[in-house]
């Protein structure tokens, strides 16, 4: 397990080094996928690099990534990668994009890494090994009231109509330091919660093991423990029920 985690952290950092060779460079071409989300040579190249690293080290493992087709495996392990989480930040020169690497087996999440290369920091966890940020164990906030909480989100355009009235008068301090970086802020005690009303599997894959090993609480927006439903709420645990209640009340007012 330790070897697997060290590999995942190193792979995420290598992907980060690659993305930085394109970051804030003149002439970066931004294409758009069928869902109108941006993609660049940095996204594609970083995913190719991650896939090659995994194939070289663990050739029997499966791979799921944002930019390329799924690779089936025979080992029982599957890697889930997002070469750049926060491509919009990346193309605008904002240093809050991340590289996400996760692995799971038939028993659940194994490892998860959030690497923020432009800030030279990373957060990682392995099953039974703890959760770390820059080689120190993470510490969550002790905020116990939603009114005092700092809540992150990736972008208000992703909020469904049932939640949008919260944006006008949120019962917490709301900041859009989102994507993988928002989750890292929660795990490192710099924010109290991160809210993603809509997300893909590769956006969320590192979170279950990071939450389990840090003591954070992770659910879907609807309170479900299964985040493959496409949304996530990560918090220090102390404000989680109150936050879910606020979201549930909002849902009922649609």
What does this structure look like?
With 254 residues, this protein is α+β, with helices and mostly antiparallel strands. It is 31% helix and 26% strand. A seven-stranded mixed β-sheet has the order 3-4-5-6-7-8-9, sandwiched between helices. Helix 1 (2-20) runs antiparallel to helix 2.
Give short descriptive properties of this protein.
seven-stranded mixed beta sheet, alpha+beta, five-stranded mixed beta sheet, single chain, 8 helices, 254 residues
**What's the total count of β strands?**
14
Tell me the strand percentage band: 25-35%
Shape: globular
Strand order of the largest sheet: 3-4-5-6-7-8-9
Structural class by helix and strand composition: alpha+beta
pLDDT average, as an integer? 94
Radius of gyration equals: 17 Å
The helical percent reads 25-40%
The biggest sheet amounts to: 7 strands, mixed
Return residue spans where pLDDT drops below 50 for at least 5 consecutive residues: none
> Ends: how far apart?
46 Å
Q: Output the helix-strand order.
A: HEEHEEHEEEEEEHEHEHHEEH
Q: Figure out the total of helices.
A: 8
Topology of helices and strands:
Elements: H1 2-20, E1 30-32, E2 38-40, H2 41-57, E3 62-65, E4 78-85, H3 87-91, E5 98-105, E6 108-116, E7 121-126, E8 130-133, E9 136-137, E10 150-153, H4 165-168, E11 173-175, H5 179-187, E12 193-196, H6 201-204, H7 207-214, E13 217-219, E14 232-235, H8 240-252
Parallel strand pairs: 3-4, 10-11, 10-12
Antiparallel strand pairs: 1-2, 4-5, 5-6, 6-7, 7-8, 8-9, 12-14, 13-14
